[in-house]
Design goal:
By secondary structure, the protein is mainly alpha-helical. The chain has 16 helices and 6 strands. A hairpin with a 2-residue loop joins strand 4 and strand 5. The longest helix has 21 residues.
């Protein structure tokens, strides 16, 4: 596997009109295409079938499958993988949160492989990746007001890795994509749900890439995989709160079985192995659950319902139905749990750990 830093920056066909529409629509066209192509299910889908469905709906499939979605070749068949981006598109209406997650997927520029694809096509937008990492994050300090088509064009043209004959159309299109992908809203140091989703998406892509290249995948190295993906530089300003949150999210990702979390059968088997003394959680409801961490009420992650017990007992997350989240006061729940824990500590401190006789004996020994 060639190191990402050595791959050429190919413009590809990004400059083809995708029909994004008015800027106020964000990336709603991409959201719609994912739903159509995956037929409303969070399940791996043959690339050919996905493209046929999208074309039948009168929409353009090329940019979604080559720049945003995750590709794999399984048993000789080109597959589009159901990962975190697909999970969000299928389970939730289009929102600004989806736009920012999709923008992250584009900038991550890790779309896997399909038959006949070159190695460079697995990293189709490295010019965007490095512009965000080196220019927006490092040079601009996430002052997105400094982003312009002129600056993008200069950045790309002055890098020897760029192979295009011209960079102007790419630069204007990327500047527009940054706008409708809400990259200006990345500049937050606090945790937001889209940022939490980006952690899972980056891990899905990195681990899939390693597996496709027959490289060892170790849970102990997941934090390293995030660094390899330039996660911190692509997802907004760093902060102590985010650093702590990443550790909790790694535990949740591992508890839920990684990308296998979208398979109900795999989760039933995992629960039976990891939690043999618990009755499996049975439900025909396909809607996701909300997992949140008691140490930070802002740390909320949508997970497949089949992961609920694993999240609770292996990663110490509380889990409720996602549909209940709007009416659920997470902060008050955390406060009640904290008070209960403090009350237990107070009782345990006051309660003697030895009998009266033993205590008196200790006193006599001291004499």
């Amino acid at each position: 596997m060639t190191e990402r830093s050595r791959l050429p920056w190919t413009p590809g066909s990004f400059t083809k009109n995708f029909g994004w529409g008015d800027a106020t629509r964000g990336l709603s066209e991409l959201h719609s295409i994912i739903r159509i192509g995956f037929d409303g299910k969070v399940e791996d889908t043959p690339r050919r079938i996905f493209r046929d469905r999208v074309k039948s709906a009168g929409k353009i499939d090329y940019i979604p499958v080559n720049f945003f979605l995750l590709n794999r070749v399984l048993a000789g068949v080109d597959i589009l993988v159901a990962d975190e981006l697909v999970f969000n598109a299928i389970n939730f209406r289009h929102s600004r949160r989806f736009d920012k997650l999709a923008m992250f997927a584009f900038n991550l520029s890790m779309v896997g492989v399909w038959k006949g694809a070159s190695e460079a096509q697995s990293r189709p937008a490295l010019w965007a990746h490095y512009y965000v990492r080196d220019r927006i994050a490092k040079d601009f300090g996430w002052d997105t007001r400094k982003i312009s088509a002129d600056d993008i064009e200069s950045f790309v043209k002055n890098d020897r890795r760029y192979t295009g004959q011209t960079a102007r159309k790419l630069a204007t299109n990327l500047a527009y994509l940054f706008r409708i992908g809400r990259i200006a809203e990345y500049k937050i140091e606090k945790i937001d749900r889209w940022w939490v989703d980006c952690i899972f998406l980056a891990l899905d892509r990195e681990i899939s890439d390693r597996s496709a290249n027959s490289l060892e995948v170790r849970e102990a190295d997941y934090a390293t995989y995030l660094r390899d993906a330039d996660f911190d530089d692509l997802s907004g300003p760093r902060s102590a709160e985010k650093a702590i949150a990443i550790r909790h999210m790694l535990a949740l990702y591992i508890a839920c079985g990684g990308i296998e979390r979208f398979s109900a059968e795999a989760m039933r088997q995992r629960t039976a192995i990891k939690l043999p003394d618990l009755q499996p959680y049975a439900s025909n409801d396909p809607s996701p659950s909300a997992a949140f961490h008691l140490t930070n009420p802002s740390l909320v992650k949508a997970i497949p319902r089949a992961c609920a017990m694993l999240a609770r007992y292996l990663a110490n997350f509380e889990v409720i139905d996602w549909s209940d989240l709007d009416d659920f006061d997470v902060l008050e729940f955390v406060r009640r749990n904290l008070k209960s824990a403090l009350d237990e500590i107070e009782v345990s401190v006051r309660r003697p750990n030895v009998s009266v006789e033993d205590y008196l004996k200790l006193m006599r020994d001291d004499d």
